[in-house]
Every structure is written in C-alpha cells, then in structure tokens.
Design brief:
heterodimer; A: alpha/beta; Rossmann fold; four-stranded parallel sheet; 4 strands; 31% helix; 13% strand; globular; B: mainly alpha
C-alpha cells in the first residue's frame, strides 16, 4: 500500500495514518505501508486532484507494477467534495487514473477505510 | 559414479535449502510479531494460525507481480545482483552446522569461519551493486551508505569472531561450537555484547538501519526493484538475518550442541539450533525496536573510535584471561 496526497487538507491523511497505529493495526491483514511505488500493490489517494498534481499522480501510478489497485479516500477524491467546480482541480480522481474502490466521508473513519480495503479483497476474489 | 541420495536429500530438504527457506520465513514472521507486540500492536494475525503464513503469502504475491525494469538501468547488474546476493547467502548458510554437522556432510574444514565472513561480505557488495545499477538517486544514496557503514562494522566483526575462535583454538564452526560445554557467552560476555551490537550494523537494523532509512531515502538500495527481483532481495535480507543469528549461536552459544533428552542426536541438534537462534533474534529485534536511528557520520565515528578499540581490547582481554577461563571450563 502506498499513500499519496494529491492536495488534501490532511484530514483524510491522518485517518489513513491512524490505520497503522495500535488501535486499528492493518498489519493484522498483512497490509504494510511501503516506501516506494515499485513495492506497492494498492495506491491510496486522498484529496482533490489538483491540475498541478495530476501528472505526478499519473507517473506514480505508472511506476507501480501490475496488478495494481487504487483506493480513493475521502469526499474530495471521490467527487471533488467542497472543491468541486474549482478552477484548479479535477472533478474526480477517476478522471486521472482508474479507481477500484471509493471510500466517501469527510474525513472517512479508519473503520470505513478498512471496510474499503476488505471490499477490494472481495472484488479480487470475484 | 553412484548418485548419493543422502547428499541430495541433505542439500535440498533437511537441513538444506527447503528447511533453511522455511526457517527464514518463520524468522521473518517472528521478527514482525515481536516488533508488533513491542509497539502494542497485533502483527500478522489472519493468514494461517497466528498469521504464521503471512511471509509465505507475501513472497508468493511478489513472485506473481509484474517485473518492471526501468529504461535507464544497467540491465545485466539489475537482474543478476538480487539472485547473486541470495545465492551467496544460501551458500554461506551451508557451512553453518545445523544438526551437528554441515549441510553437506564432512565439508567442514579449518577456516570455514573466514569463508563464511568473506561470503557475507561479497553478498553485501552484490546488494550495493544492485542499488548502484538502478540509477535512482535514492538507491544510489542507499548503496553508498551500505559501503560507508560496511567500512565501520566489518573489522570489529572479524576481530570479535576471533575471540571464541581463540578460546576454542580453531577456525571451524563445528569445532568452536563443540568446545562450548559452558557457552562462550557466559565466559566472555564482553565479546558477546559487542558482537551483538556490531551485528545490528551488519543486519541494517536500528540504530544502524541507515542504508534503507524509509523516512529519509525512500527504500534505499531496493527502491527501484519490483516483483521477482524484490522477492529475491527481501529473501536475501531474511537469509542475512538468519546467518547473523546463526553466527552468534555458533560462536557464543554452542550452536546445535546441547543436552540430548531422547531420540536421535541430529533431531536435538536442529531443535537446539532453532531455539538458540530464536533467542538471539529476539535480542536483536529488541535492541532494534528500543533504539532510534543514528546519522551515517555518527555511525562511522562510533565504529572507528569506539567499536574497533573496544573489539581489540576485548580480544586482548580474552587472550589474557584464557588460562583462567580454561581452568573454569575443566
């Protein structure tokens, strides 16, 4: 799993980081935070995709070895949130890269993000 | 020439390749579990009983992933070095007695301690080359850090490995391990403690995990690797860990020799070996988890100004106390 911030207000980021703490501990499911996109399977994107950030996001997505999956975290990544229709941002994350799971919320609870990861696993099985 | 089936069985199954692979994966799991428990987390839980199959699942996943080769890299070195490092570590492991004798029977000779240290050194160079060939600034920094750190810890490791060798009057693992009716860790605790600390540097654990400091230089030398190559690099790290713990076990804790309670001697050899290495890994992981990372210049300074003089002192102390220690043993 790789965490990438495309211009979020840090609310969702803190919820993502909370997943790694003792209270939620995603390592129980074998999920680890990886330092490099080359090591990652799942890209977790938080925040509205700004026009400046989009090319970098694309590069990072291309650097990941397939099979690769993208989780859009937070209202901004799913639908633009309060930044929808702003001149500097894309409306949704899936205008830039393909998205597998959407986790709405502002910010979504860590449980919701976990649920999203489990949804992704179910999707893989099917 | 008739094919010797026991030789093939020993090299491939027990205590050879498959046993070592299972042991390395088990230690990987143990390491993650200890780290998680120390951080008040659960660690891997759901893959197999107590999450014990988590490393296996991770490696199978890595083996099935796409193998990206960036356009700029030196293709030969980039593909060769992960496999080279892995095979060198496995080769070094074959010289360490696990069930009372080496993996290939009667291949132990006077001086295999030096051979194993040389093999580990060459394998470290292979890891350095893997970072160097991947033409990524982070890998480059990580690779140079491996070498800089290596300059510091290699000399103390050799000097400290000589202390038990001197007490046992031998440079072969089997002879050193067999001489320890009382483990050398109790006779020369000063060398044992120093060896554990230098081993932390060799294994790139905190406080010496500078070559792949995630918060500073992404993944260090392994940043650009993915798929099968990353699997080999991770496996060679696991084997390096196994060899480090095995070195301590053989040199200071009496290796596979211990009381035989019932049944065949070889079985107890393997059981004692695994139990002792588990203890060593727990100590190493404990130190790694309670300490913070040093800077690279601090590591080089502390290695040259503190560890090397201390290592020489402990060797001198061992030589001086040798008659006294000999009278305690006998």
């Amino acid at each position: 799993m790789l965490h990438f911030n495309t211009g979020a207000c840090n609310g969702c980021d803190i919820e993502v980081v909370a997943l790694l703490t003792p209270r939620y501990d995603v390592e129980r499911f074998g999920v680890l935070l990886q330092p490099s996109p080359r090591h990652a399977d799942v890209l977790m994107v938080t925040g509205p995709v700004t026009k400046q950030c989009a090319p970098r996001l694309r590069v990072i997505y291309q650097q990941m070895p397939s099979p690769k999956f993208v989780v859009a975290i937070g209202a901004c990544a799913c639908s633009g949130g309060v930044f929808r229709d702003c001149y500097g941002v894309y409306k949704r994350l899936d205008e830039v890269i393909p998205v597998d799971v959407y986790v709405p919320g502002c910010p979504p609870k860590p449980e919701a993000i976990l649920q999203g990861v489990i949804k992704l696993l179910e999707k893989l099985k099917a | 020439m008739p094919i010797d089936l026991t030789l093939i069985a020993r090299a491939l199954i027990f205590p050879g390749f498959i046993f070592l692979l299972a042991l390395a994966l088990f230690f990987d799991w143990f390491e993650r579990k200890v780290a998680a428990r120390m951080q008040n987390r659960m660690g891997p839980t759901y893959t197999g009983p107590l999450g014990i199959l988590q490393p296996v699942a991770d490696y199978i996943k890595l083996l099935t992933k796409e193998d990206v080769i960036p356009r700029q890299v030196n293709k030969l070195l980039f593909t060769l070095t992960p496999v080279l490092a892995f095979s060198l570590f496995v080769f070094a492991m074959f010289y360490i007695p696990i069930d009372g004798s080496n993996v290939i029977l009667n291949s132990s000779f006077e001086g295999d301690l030096i051979l194993v240290i040389v093999l580990i050194t060459i394998a470290n160079f292979a890891l350095f080359l893997s970072g160097w060939s991947s033409t990524n600034p982070y890998s480059g920094i990580g690779a140079t850090r491996i070498l800089t750190q290596f300059l510091g810890y290699d000399i103390p490791v050799i000097i400290l490995a000589l202390c038990p060798a001197f007490l046992a009057k031998s440079l072969s693992f089997v002879a050193i391990a067999a001489k320890q009716a009382i483990p050398f860790a109790l006779l020369i605790p000063w060398s044992f403690a120093l060896f554990i600390i230098t081993l932390q540097a060799e294994l790139e654990k905190d406080p010496f995990d500078i070559p792949h400091a995630e918060t500073e230089i992404v993944g260090g030398y392994e940043t650009e690797f993915s798929g099968r190559k990353l699997a080999f690099i991770k496996l060679s790290e696991d084997f390096q860990f196994l060899i480090g713990a095995a070195l301590v076990t053989e040199l200071f804790l009496g290796g596979p020799f211990g009381p035989v309670l019932f049944g065949p001697k070889e079985m107890w050899g393997a059981i004692w070996f695994v139990a002792k290495t588990l203890g060593v890994i727990f100590i190493l992981e404990y130190i790694g988890n309670v300490s913070a990372r040093l800077r690279i210049d601090q590591v080089v300074h502390s290695n040259w100004k503190i560890l090397i003089p201390l290592a020489i002192l402990s060797l001198a102390l061992t030589i001086t106390c040798e008659p006294l220690l000999r009278s305690i043993v006998s």
